[in-house]
Amino acid sequence: xxxxxxxxxxxxxxxxxxxxxxxxxxxxxxxxxxxxxxxxxxxxxxxxxxxxxxxxxxxxxxxxxxxxxxxxxxxxxxxxxxxxxxxxxxxxxxxxxxxxxxxxxxxxxxxxxxxxxxxxxxxxxxxxxxxxxxxxxxxxxxxxxxxxxxxxxxxxxxxxxxxxxxxxxxxxxxxxxxxxxxxxxxxxxxxxxxxxxxxxxxxxxxxxxxxxxxxxxxxxxxxxxxxxxxxxxxxxxxxxxxxxxxxxxxxxxxxxxxxxxxxxxxxxxxxxxxxxxxxxxxxxxxxxxxxxxxxxxxxxxxxxxxx
Amino acid sequence: xxxxxxxxxxxxxxxxxxxxxxxxxxxxxxxxxxxxxxxxxxxxxxxxxxxxxxxxxxxxxxxxxxxxxxxxxxxxxxxxxxxxxxxxxxxxxxxxxxxxxxxxxxxxxxxxxxxxxxxxxxxxxxxxxxxxxxxxxxxxxxxxxxxxxxxxxxxxxxxxxxxxxxxxxxxxxxxxxxxxxxxxxxxxxxxxxxxxxxxxxxxxxxxxxxxxxxxxxxxxxxxxxxxxxxxxxxxxxxxxxxxxxxxxxxxxxxxxxxxxxxxxxxxxxxxxxxxxxxxxxxxxxxxxxxxxxxxxxxxxxxxxxxxxxxxxxxxxxxxxx
Lengths: 307, 321
What we know:
The structure holds two protein chains of two kinds. Chain A is α/β, with parallel strands linked by helices. In chain A, 26% of the residues lie in helices and 23% in strands. In chain B, helix 5 packs antiparallel against helix 6. The longest helix of chain B has 29 residues, at 93-121.
């Protein structure tokens, strides 16, 4: 009953309402105590302008694991990614990559931002951006090298971007840019790949393609993938692990362990129902006998949507 | 046209010392501005470039007051302004316009005072014109070592930080994730841009200096998608406009209305603009031609292209494990 279906079919997923295993206390889900974890997040708390955005978040990812960081807007997904990346300092807790504290110069994390700032006019081709993933931090002018070129070509092929390798990055569609950014992030062979809402603004087809690509990369290159998204359903067929964020707290495990009425209700701090409709999961606020939570209730409307 | 040729082959042009200085100073300024201009445009810092130009008026007019070469004032004030802009927060997208605007306003206020004193206390009524619009033929050759050193410094910064600056122009978070010290790279780039602007200010005047900073790169990025090549083109276009401008200005001595010669800055800036226009028109024709190729059409209508081989390639080897 892992959430992962390598053949990509979602139909046989039964992620919810199953095996009443011991409902683990939300805040104390054990971070797997394996020394080989690609990422371990240990008790991260973040205060931003007087508000606790993240509270004691802990989870771990093994190499090759594909994990979805799921939560509605404002749940703390971006903050958590920024902490892992080192862009935001946590108030408490510890992040380790490959068992070592993350260091600034480390190439161990590949990062795919949600948006890039480049105008369509700017002279930077897809292959230039992928190459910058290899040596963008280096000083001095790049020397032409066959090895570098081959590596860039190989990476472009791996993400299916060879067709637009020579096109300007700013001219590419959202899905094409995602591929190029993934190649950029992967070319330095990181242990961990972080993606900030890569599925936002993608059409359905590109979404499926990007998810399939990432799942394959995680498996083939044994890189741990952590991808933030507000919608869990597209990821269910391929996801090994869910890190579910709500109200700044996290629950981690397989989809069937985490996306359950008891676990999520505890996480949200009020009752939510996890409903399965065909092969999709809906997370709905309110009690079973009371379909709409009263307005002004803690996190009412954001939960009432499908998550 | 025959006028141009006769002036080229006329010994007066290449034999004249002012022309030597103009060709050297103008060429250097054009190349440095062309190179740094590509970074300015890619990083969206054209407004900062304009601010440096305005600030240079302050430095230039101050230099005239105390009787030193304006290059010291240009470079001193614009580099100082770069530092202040960084402190105010030019690196943040929102803080950028704010920082630039504040520094620019303060500098221009001082410039108004200095220019007033220049015209009151010194007899050089031409000071204002020289500072604002430049005059390549009256530059003293004693500044050549200084501006060479400044130019080498600015281009050196650009060369050293080429890749980090490119990457942070795509996304500052991406650059950070690669371990790039964004702020350090940002301030270094700003200083290099400030130097480029001050060199151009010396050559074609403070008001016109941004024409050399923004015009050639804007033209270059119509011509190529490769960042390195865009920098080379930009430098070349700036150089061509400047040298051709000097030649035309020299020749214009025989043009109407009288025996004075037209301002060289006018020719340089006009040529920069004409080059841009030509590239724009050529680019438009080129793009219209390419729109019919299958690759282009395929990219434009992505919604309906079931025959696209990419998804299959994607679902290839690893998917069935």
